[in-house]
Amino acid sequence: MRSPFPFLAAVLLALPGAALALEPLERGASVAFFGIKFLDTSAEGAYNGVREDEVARLALLEDAIRDRFVAEGFEMVDLAPVAEELDRTWSPADCNGCDVRMAARLGADYSLVGEVQKVSNLILSMNLALREVETDRLVRMLAVDIRSNTDDSWLRGGRYILEHHFFADEEGDSPGHDGSSGSTRSSGNPAAAHPSVPPGNQ
Length: 202
Description:
It contains 6 helices and 7 strands. The chain is an alpha/beta fold. The protein has a single domain, classed as ABC-type transport auxiliary lipoprotein component (Rossmann fold, 3-Layer(aba) Sandwich). Helix 3 packs parallel to helix 6. The radius of gyration is 16 Å and the shape is globular. The N terminus and C terminus are likely disordered.
């Protein structure tokens, strides 16, 4: 059974002895992107509920991720055939494999899910996970800490995950489309645990 704790899975796969070379993703393959779940565990969220700027920020991040996959040569599949099930799903990133089952129904090669957790306006974390539908195998996963609750900080966190893990070359990290560079704590793994992306880092 697949672990319902994606961050724990990321940590376990990053432990010594679990390192594996990143295998290339199949360009031209189809991806079912089920969006990013926003988890607000902050005191502010408990008292004030959903903020409009965070709803808009989530959509901005999802668009940026979608656009990057298209730019890398992937086909993003239409989710309309599973819209009803998706609406009933609290978090596609934590649903005991429902994302892969929905992706299979859509004929997709990969399932892509993610979460952003807000602890406070200063402390947030973000993760993205990509699974191969045919095998239910986790092929990419990375969690990062981000500092400050702004459009720019969220986009930096997403770019970091994509540049330095999802689309990194097989020898390690590769410069980003925006000229950014950097490294994760464990660059050769299918997943790595919580590198920090402070304000100002791309």
